[in-house]
Protein 1
Amino acid sequence: MTDHNDRGHEHGDEHEHYATPKSRRPRSEFELRTMALEALLTEKGIVSTDAVDTFVEIIEHRMGPHHGARVVAKAWADPEYHERLLADGTAAAAELGVAGAEGDNIRVVENTADVHNLVVCTLCSCYPWPLLGAPPIWYKSFAFRARAVAEPRAVLREWGTELDDTVEVRVWDSSAEVRYLVLPERPVGTENLGEDELAALVTRDSMIGVSRVSPVGS
Amino acid sequence: MEGVHDLGGVGGFGPVRTPGSDATHTEEWEVRAQWLALAACHSSRPWIERIDPPTYLATSYYGRWLRAAEMGAVGNGIVTAAELAGSRSRVEQGELPGRADDPARARAVTDYMTSTSPSAPAVSPRFAVGDAVVPKQMWQPDVHHRCPRYVRGVRGVIERICGIEPLAGVRRAEVIEPVYTVRFESAAVWGERSDEAPFAIHVDLWDSYLDAS
């Protein structure tokens, strides 16, 4: 295949974006189409290369589940914050500097011994970007979008999450502008941990509601 | 729109977890295509929903963003189909998109991605928490809306008032309505079942989607 880096140098440009794939696979049809559209939209002044780079950098790195985990850990450690978080997720997240696109109306729903929450978006793949970043591939799958509202317990079993029939399962279909975050149950054996240590235990999947936070040492 | 994107309850898709599905994406073009769609479509969801059903179902998540970006860019008069084809053939011959930076545009992306404008509270909403409601039966094949088929005609209860939002699909959002979280019992939506214990489904619905029950 063509060595695109060499071609880039011929033009005297830097081409960190769309650098030659290391795998030496030919570019996919979708990649070619994306490049063609980006080239045109750049020419027309609709986007700039650094604007696209900035979007990728923010959604892939600056946003992410580490922020959701900080929010959860603080709620576990601080009863007053816990109360504020459940009352107004947007404001409580902003207290920790967590805010942004797809986070204008954050609602936090709490798992307890009696209630288990699961978040989905059946119509597309709405997701609380500032708290969790970009959603995993499975969250965007047709299977999850179709099944989470019809057979949530069967979906949870794919994660090994077994719930007694007495536990009330609440599914949240993000069909408008509210973006949901699950506050998982604090695992036993974490009484002596500080917020940073607690945050390290919190997984992305537990904040979507497909799994629990595992007890320490398991 | 009454489209195949409205997937709640559709059978036959198989397991949710598949090898590699914990990642957010696999290739560089995918997230770039998402921004191209956000920039070219103005409102990207209606364009994604306009993808014809066979293509929608046969295309990956980011592939649909790309298709919407192309449709939106042409539909909004930003590029022509001929320009798109020309650019495609240059790329195919090995030409890379030239780097064109614009710090002001990059800053605008940062602002968009990191700022929040919280929803305003609803003033004297039609329904109160605890009220029984039924989402209307409707058929709007060409109009973007956010009322999933699986709850239409099903009795639910207002669980929370979310605030006011521009009505989905209305151009320039001149219609602002309260949005409610409505709780539905699984038996009301899917019937009595032996394979799953009863559960609750919450759907966020604009005021005009709802009738009092």
Note: The two ends of chain B are 25 Å apart (CA to CA).
Protein 2
Amino acid sequence: MSRAPFFRYVPDARRDGAAHPARRVMEIATSHSLPAPKRAGKHRASLARRMWNNRWMYLLMAPGIVFFLVFIYLPLIGNVIAFKDYSPFLGFERSPWVGLENFRKLFTDPDFGRALRNTLQIEALQLLFAFPAPLALALLFNSMVSEKSKRMVQSIVYLPHFLSWVIVISLWQEVFGGDGFLNQYLRNQGIGTVNIMSNSDIFKPLVVLQMIWKEAGWGTILFLAALTKIDVSLYEAAVIDGAGRWRRLRDVTLPGIRPVIVLLLILHLGFALSVGFEQYYLQRNGVGAGAAEVLDTFIYFRGIQNGDWGFATAVGMVRGVAGAILIFTANWFVKKMGEEGVL
Amino acid sequence: MAASHPDRTSRRLPITGKPTTFRQRVREWLKPKKQAPWMENPHPLLLIGKGLLLLLIVLVMLFPFVHILAVSFSSSTDVLGGGLILFPTNPTLDAYRVIFNDGTVVRALRVSAQLTIFGTFVQIVATTAMAYGLSKPGVPGSRAILLMALGAMLFYPGMIPSFLLIKELGLLDTYPALILPGLIGAFNLIILRQFFMNIPQELLDSARLDGASDIRLLFSIVLPLSKAVLAVISLFYAVGIWNSFFNAILYINTPSKWPMQVVLQQIVLEGTPLNPASVLDPNRPPPPPATIEMAVVVVATLPILLVYPFLQKYFTRGVLTGAIKG
């Protein structure tokens, strides 16, 4: 595990994190395997001397250090405006403190309640369908195909992962939209058209399908890696004991990759309140906010479009803290059950 | 290939092992991978079922691409005729003429291309410099700096504070706002640092004995040894910038500054029309909006499709095996 694969090469990992718990697994795996810095032995030069000797190294690291401090840690502190009635005219310091007022609004704001409900419903559907999809696909890849066609299919299903959501939604629009391929075909056949892309009733299953189409292939990578690590002698032993193909799947394969499944599940839960922004923002116009408003889009429209800065920040903060609590709880629970946790 | 399973396939394959007839080629594609002796022969129905399932998956994945490509080359009669467009009957480049004569798309393409090239360069330089600094053992404070970078993977500061930061820095509506917030991906940093640390220390030590400075080591030993991994990380950064939509929506307000993804969204999803340019033959009907929209999608997708083989070569061979062995 310490040689982490490519998952996190993909930028924007944080924003679409919910979609790729795999990335977070490897992130955390790496953070555990950091080697301690070597000590130079008994007779070390003085600290000042060593720092001077490494002056070029500090110079090289300087831009990166500034980046992390300014673009990650400074805005992290900036979350205190959740406790203020922030106004751009008064600025960061002179905006008045309002205590927990912004958090109190969480319980009364109907739009927030709606966004939260939508997010939780979509997340539940994703957990049920989008989460197992890569596993099923990986088992399929693993079970049969000739190496050659397996590699070809893999390179096809990985592709959409590298496309932006704008392109993916455009493709879906062209196939399933009002003037899209499907409806044109139905119209020409004299059958009535079906409203798929802007139908608020089926929006939630639709986004899960989109997610599966875009990311299930890419999600197989971690499972495939785990599958190859299962000891082959276990299968041989199972066959000698008379286990058939399904029995081997149930009693050798699935237990063999259970640690990976559990890890991914925990991380998935950690992002339960963040289903992503772009996929929903792009379809919000067609479907309406009633079905398509999730917490990410809610924060954007409430905070940046309507200028309710303090409240939107409070929503973001609650989401982050709730995610952390979910991860810790799931981790604790899983450890109780005798599994290896993430933390 | 065939020689390794003489018992299974030699009936149909020639001794040379190279499939020659069409039928043999198909068999080669469908041939199960090397099986352990304890494995039972798969039931033919199971094989057929799996094959059909895979075929269905491939169709579902590829159909939209084939379809939009066909639509983008279609003439208005093809589109109005309706039905299954998989191959345009009267192919025409009209849609592409329109979008390349319309200033909006060309400008957005130029913006995105410049952003991608320049941004990738800045990001890879910053990442490399920091990874190199963190890779040298015995630099005081480097552990704390590393932990700070790792912490960035766990905390996302939130949309509003990030936006207000960009605003306070005066970066709203400027291109640095699209590049700086993602300057260093913490994961890329760790990968690169690990790679640098795997370079044999003796090599570096002997150069140090010869009086080479840390900077000199970086340029004459470390970088030449890391070309491949640098290329891959650059590609991932480049794909990220080319695809960036959220940051552009957040930080760029002036329509003339929009990158490709936002313009794509405006044209295809918001239905902002492009003017059919005067370059077209007036005797022919102008291309319908759907055709133009799909041509824009094709143009925006093409760069990704062009670099995809490189990405793919890397992640199927290099990293996957690395991850497995790890």
Note: Residues 289-325 of chain B form the longest helix (37 residues).
